[in-house]
Q: What sequence folds into this?
Protein backbone atom coordinates (compact mmCIF):
# COMPACT_ATOMS: atom_id res chain seq x y z
CA UNK A 1 0.00 0.00 0.00
CA UNK A 2 2.83 2.34 0.88
CA UNK A 3 4.44 1.60 -2.47
CA UNK A 4 1.14 2.27 -4.23
CA UNK A 5 0.97 5.72 -2.70
CA UNK A 6 4.56 6.44 -3.62
CA UNK A 7 3.84 5.36 -7.16
CA UNK A 8 0.72 7.52 -7.31
CA UNK A 9 2.61 10.56 -6.07
CA UNK A 10 5.29 10.16 -8.74
CA UNK A 11 2.69 9.66 -11.49
CA UNK A 12 0.83 12.77 -10.33
CA UNK A 13 4.07 14.73 -10.56
CA UNK A 14 4.81 13.45 -14.05
CA UNK A 15 1.29 14.11 -15.34
CA UNK A 16 0.06 17.27 -13.63
CA UNK A 17 -2.43 17.81 -16.48
CA UNK A 18 -4.67 15.02 -15.13
CA UNK A 19 -6.75 14.86 -11.96
CA UNK A 20 -6.40 11.81 -9.72
CA UNK A 21 -9.30 11.02 -7.42
CA UNK A 22 -9.85 8.19 -5.00
CA UNK A 23 -12.95 6.12 -5.71
CA UNK A 24 -14.49 2.67 -5.48
CA UNK A 25 -12.72 1.33 -8.54
CA UNK A 26 -10.35 2.29 -11.32
CA UNK A 27 -11.90 4.29 -14.14
CA UNK A 28 -11.23 7.12 -16.53
CA UNK A 29 -13.61 10.06 -16.82
CA UNK A 30 -12.96 12.15 -19.91
CA UNK A 31 -11.28 14.32 -20.35
CA UNK A 32 -8.90 14.58 -17.44
CA UNK A 33 -9.97 12.61 -14.40
CA UNK A 34 -8.59 9.26 -13.33
CA UNK A 35 -10.26 7.48 -10.43
CA UNK A 36 -8.26 4.94 -8.47
CA UNK A 37 -8.97 2.52 -5.68
CA UNK A 38 -6.34 1.92 -3.03
CA UNK A 39 -7.64 -1.50 -2.16
CA UNK A 40 -6.99 -3.11 -5.56
CA UNK A 41 -4.20 -5.53 -6.27
CA UNK A 42 -2.08 -4.60 -9.27
CA UNK A 43 -2.43 -0.97 -8.34
CA UNK A 44 0.42 0.20 -10.57
CA UNK A 45 -0.81 -1.57 -13.69
CA UNK A 46 -4.41 -0.51 -13.25
CA UNK A 47 -3.36 3.08 -12.73
CA UNK A 48 -1.19 2.95 -15.85
CA UNK A 49 -4.11 1.49 -17.78
CA UNK A 50 -6.39 4.41 -16.88
CA UNK A 51 -3.52 6.78 -17.61
CA UNK A 52 -3.29 5.01 -20.97
CA UNK A 53 -6.90 5.97 -21.71
CA UNK A 54 -6.16 9.56 -20.74
CA UNK A 55 -3.01 9.78 -22.87
CA UNK A 56 -4.67 8.04 -25.84
CA UNK A 57 -7.48 10.59 -25.72
CA UNK A 58 -10.26 8.01 -25.35
CA UNK A 59 -13.24 10.29 -25.06
CA UNK A 60 -16.04 8.56 -26.85
CA UNK A 61 -16.94 5.34 -28.58
CA UNK A 62 -20.17 4.06 -30.03
CA UNK A 63 -19.84 0.34 -30.61
CA UNK A 64 -18.55 -2.41 -28.35
CA UNK A 65 -15.93 -3.40 -30.92
CA UNK A 66 -14.54 0.13 -30.64
CA UNK A 67 -14.70 -0.20 -26.89
CA UNK A 68 -12.67 -3.40 -26.95
CA UNK A 69 -10.09 -1.83 -29.25
CA UNK A 70 -9.85 1.14 -26.89
CA UNK A 71 -9.27 -1.21 -23.95
CA UNK A 72 -6.52 -3.04 -25.81
CA UNK A 73 -4.86 0.20 -26.85
CA UNK A 74 -4.95 1.49 -23.29
CA UNK A 75 -3.12 -1.68 -22.21
CA UNK A 76 -0.58 -1.17 -25.00
CA UNK A 77 0.13 2.31 -23.68
CA UNK A 78 0.24 0.95 -20.14
CA UNK A 79 2.84 -1.58 -21.27
CA UNK A 80 5.12 1.14 -22.65
CA UNK A 81 4.71 3.16 -19.45
CA UNK A 82 5.34 0.09 -17.32
CA UNK A 83 8.58 -0.63 -19.19
CA UNK A 84 9.86 2.89 -18.76
CA UNK A 85 8.86 2.99 -15.08
CA UNK A 86 10.20 -0.45 -14.17
CA UNK A 87 6.76 -1.79 -13.30
CA UNK A 88 6.30 -5.50 -13.91
CA UNK A 89 3.88 -5.99 -16.78
CA UNK A 90 1.88 -9.05 -15.79
CA UNK A 91 0.67 -10.44 -19.14
CA UNK A 92 -1.55 -13.01 -17.46
CA UNK A 93 -3.33 -10.42 -15.38
CA UNK A 94 -3.88 -8.25 -18.46
CA UNK A 95 -5.22 -11.21 -20.47
CA UNK A 96 -7.66 -11.98 -17.65
CA UNK A 97 -8.80 -8.38 -17.61
CA UNK A 98 -9.39 -8.43 -21.36
CA UNK A 99 -11.13 -11.81 -21.14
CA UNK A 100 -13.59 -10.63 -18.54
CA UNK A 101 -14.18 -7.66 -20.81
CA UNK A 102 -14.83 -9.91 -23.79
CA UNK A 103 -17.21 -12.07 -21.74
CA UNK A 104 -19.08 -9.02 -20.56
CA UNK A 105 -19.41 -7.75 -24.13
CA UNK A 106 -20.56 -11.15 -25.32
CA UNK A 107 -23.24 -11.40 -22.64
CA UNK A 108 -24.37 -7.89 -23.43
CA UNK A 109 -24.75 -8.80 -27.10
CA UNK A 110 -27.12 -11.71 -26.50
CA UNK A 111 -30.78 -11.19 -27.42
CA UNK A 112 -32.98 -11.24 -24.33
CA UNK A 113 -35.87 -12.83 -26.22
CA UNK A 114 -34.21 -15.62 -28.19
CA UNK A 115 -30.61 -15.81 -26.92
CA UNK A 116 -28.96 -15.28 -30.31
CA UNK A 117 -25.89 -13.07 -30.60
CA UNK A 118 -27.01 -9.69 -31.88
CA UNK A 119 -24.97 -7.32 -34.02
CA UNK A 120 -24.35 -3.66 -33.44
CA UNK A 121 -24.76 -0.96 -36.08
CA UNK A 122 -22.35 2.02 -36.12
CA UNK A 123 -24.86 4.08 -34.13
CA UNK A 124 -24.37 1.69 -31.23
CA UNK A 125 -27.81 0.05 -31.43
CA UNK A 126 -28.07 -3.74 -31.17
CA UNK A 127 -30.14 -5.75 -33.63
CA UNK A 128 -31.22 -9.37 -33.39
CA UNK A 129 -31.00 -11.25 -36.72
CA UNK A 130 -33.90 -13.45 -35.60
CA UNK A 131 -36.33 -11.18 -33.80
CA UNK A 132 -36.05 -8.23 -36.15
CA UNK A 133 -36.91 -10.14 -39.30
ZN1 LIG B 1 -9.98 0.57 -19.63
ZN1 LIG C 1 -33.75 -12.39 -30.76
A:
Amino acid sequence: MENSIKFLVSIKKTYPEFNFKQGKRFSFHPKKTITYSETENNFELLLLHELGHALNGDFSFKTDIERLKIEMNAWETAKKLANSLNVTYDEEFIENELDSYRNWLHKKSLCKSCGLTRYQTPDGVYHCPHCEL
Q: What stands out?
A: The first helix runs from residue 2 to 14. The longest strand covers residues 19-22. Strands lie at 19-22, 27-29, 33-36, 119-120, 126-127.
